[in-house]
Amino acid sequence: MTDAKAGLEGIVVARSELCSIDGQKGILGFRGYDIHELARHATYEEVAFLLLRGELPSAAELAAFAAELGEARAVSGEAAQVVDLIARDAAPMEMLRTAVSATSFDDPDKDSNSEEANQRKAIRLLAKIPTLVCRYHRRRAGLEPVDPDPELSYAESFLTMLSGRPPDEDAARTFDVAMILHADHEMNASTFTARVIASTLADMHSAVVGAIGALKGPLHGGANEQVMRTLESIDDPDRVEDDIRRRLAGHERIMGFGHRVYKTMDPRAEILKELARRLAGRADGSEPDWFAMSERIERVVTAEKGLYPNVDFYSASTYRYLGIPTELFTTLFVASRVVGWAAHVIEQHRDNRLIRPSSLYVGPDSREYPARDGAS
Ligand SMILES: CC(C)(COP(=O)(O)OP(=O)(O)OC[C@H]1O[C@@H](n2cnc3c(N)ncnc32)[C@H](O)[C@@H]1OP(=O)(O)O)[C@@H](O)C(=O)NCCC(=O)NCCS
Fold this sequence. Notes:
The chain is mostly helical. 56% of the residues lie in helices and 3% in strands.
């Protein structure tokens, strides 16, 4: 071996039937379905079924899947206690990293990596993460948690548990589409983490907890929160361009731009941009025009650096218009992506080989252990 590939760029590490990306053309598909089609026609529940089971569900399969998800939403026992105990001090992603781990304690399938057990655990994780996020948020705000309603859709249930009020149809659909867009994304850092952990034949909860740790970083899922912080930190919305140029001149990274694989606009960002544009049109004007500011940032960054928005850029303003607190943005990424992680764990366990690459040794040459005074 003569060299190491920094960041494993361009290295193919697995065969997968889940997600395909054409980074030059900006095309993304889940099991052959284009992301634009899924965002237009599917629900998050259908996309979750597609990723986990391999095909889109029939009406009966979807109803059964949605019922199973609804039933699994409740969080009790240690995981609920953990949330209550740490809500005040733990940051949102610290809470998830800890509380998701606690959901395995009473999981009846925790000791099995069989395909059936993994499918059941995937549903429980998918169902419970929104409940953990909302319980945490309400405890932190000094409010009583809202129990999940098994009859509601994934998006309606999530937003109702968060705010205590049922969302209007438009808000629920917008949120649902945002969740669809984040559901899987090939061999990103957190998915790779999940597959590495699964390849040791560790269990799904361990893989998901590791993936949460990887997603937390600002170069990955943590970017959506940082995008909103950037927007909020711009004092004078009329001088957006100057602000961004100054940051670029200081070699700052503008969060929400650039991608390892896409060399053009991320198709998820295209869809989120239109969602944010529509929500901005409905805004009451009590806050800055986040969408207009975002578009102006996009123009500067694309012109000056040739970089395009990624999924995190317009998801920030979309979530803000939906009334979601900024500190929770990255936990929404977890809530959606857990289905991708789970589907990858299932693939890995189905045809496993330990993932154990090598490193190129660049330390000192072989040398003698030094003689020490008095040492024998
Ligand atoms: C996503 C990301 C980590 C991909 O990075 P990568 O493929 O490893 O590319 P590099 O970090 O090597 O960057 C290549 C060049 O583009 C620049 N660049 C990349 N993203 C940039 C950004 N968001 N703002 C400013 N400059 C950026 C780098 O500074 C580097 O410039 P240089 O060659 O002059 O040093 C990177 O684009 C980034 O940090 N983006 C911001 C964080 C983000 O939005 N993450 C979410 C990804 S979905």
